[in-house]
Amino acid sequence: MAVGAATRRSPTTDVGGELALSVTVYHPSSSLSEPMSRFLVLGRQPLTDLRDAIQCSSDRHGQALAKSGYFFIEGIFYNDMRCPGALDYSKNIIDWMHEQEGRQPLVARSMDGVRIDQLTIRLRCPYLYAHQGNCEHVLIFDSVRVVSGDMPRDAQDYPVVVFTTRPRHPGCYGCEKSPARWISYDDIHADRNPFMWCDHCFNHFHFNANGSASYQPLPHVEDLSTVPE
Ligand SMILES: [Zn+2]
Ligand SMILES: [Zn+2]
Predict the structure, then answer these.
(1) How far, in Å, is the centroid of ligand 1 from the Cα of 27?
(2) Distance of CA 195 from the midpoint of ligand 2 (Å)
(3) pLDDT for res 50
(4) Beta carbons of 198 and 183 less than 8 angstroms apart
(5) How far apart are CA 151 and CA 24, in angstroms?
(6) CB burial class (10 A; 0-12, 13-18, 19+) of residue 92?
(7) Which ligand is closest in space to the CA of residue 176?
């Protein structure tokens, strides 16, 4: 998509006449039937503004992983490397792709400073937003419009939250049925980090019938039931 170059102005400028994009972010691991949030972002805004607007319940857990994340758009990883210690999640994927013969090499960039109107995107095409290690959301640019009528005119009002659903705890990654109760980190019994467990799966994989730990050391866990909705 070719989007005209809007000139850089102070953040309090009237953005009437500029381009805004509608972006829908879907619940993690859901089909496209479950939108989580929708935003209006200005073409002039950096991708980091969009990332900061996305509120996911998994952001409330974990520390080191909290600031790491990426968008994957048209074959390019845009990593959030603003925080010291942020992880380049794309590296392992890119290394793996390089080992696959005939694969198109993938590219990674920092998302900081990349304006949304500089992206090559296709409307209504599913892209990926990933954060917290393995929390993945489909993200779709629905439409482009010109800021006009009763749309907010101040750049500071963007991204506009068009709607957002109540954050919800993700389901258990083990049985994929029950709601998650525990989140574990660096768990040798888990194929993802962090890993979400329901009570039943967590006990099954970590404790013997007599209640003793089935292996040592048990991973660090957080109790999701103590996190307010
Ligand atoms: Zn998420
Ligand atoms: Zn389970």
Answers:
(1) 7
(2) 11
(3) 96
(4) no
(5) 18
(6) exposed
(7) 2
Closest ligand by atom to 29 CA: 1
Residue 166 banded pLDDT, cuts 50, 70, 90: low
pLDDT of residue 5: 47
Q: Which residue has the tokens 């049925």?
A: 177
Q: Tell me, in angstroms, the distance from the centre of ligand 1 to residue 133's CA.
A: 9
d(CA 19, ligand 1 centre) in Å: 27
Residue 128 has φ and ψ, to the nearest 5°, of -125, 135
Task: Name the more confident of 103 and 172.
Answer: 172
Q: How far is the CA of 151 from the centre of ligand 1 (A)?
A: 28
| Contact assessment for residue 183 and residue 222, using Cβ atoms and an 8 Å cutoff | yes
d(CA 62, ligand 1 centre) in Å: 12
CA of 178 to the centre of ligand 2 (A): 5
Domain with CATH 3.10.290 in the chain: 19-164
Q: Rounded to an integer, what is the distance from CA 73 to the centroid of its chain?
A: 13
What CATH code would you report for 19-164?
3.10.290
Output the pTM of the full model.
0.67
What are all long-range contacts of 215-219, with beta carbons under 8 Å and residues at least 24 apart? 215/188, 215/189, 219/184, 219/185, 219/186, 219/187, 219/188, 219/190
Q: Considering only CA atoms, give the Rg of the chain.
A: 20
Tokens found for residue 85: 């210690």
CA 35 to each of CA 94, 165, 180: distance values in angstroms, whole numbers, following the listed order: 28, 8, 20
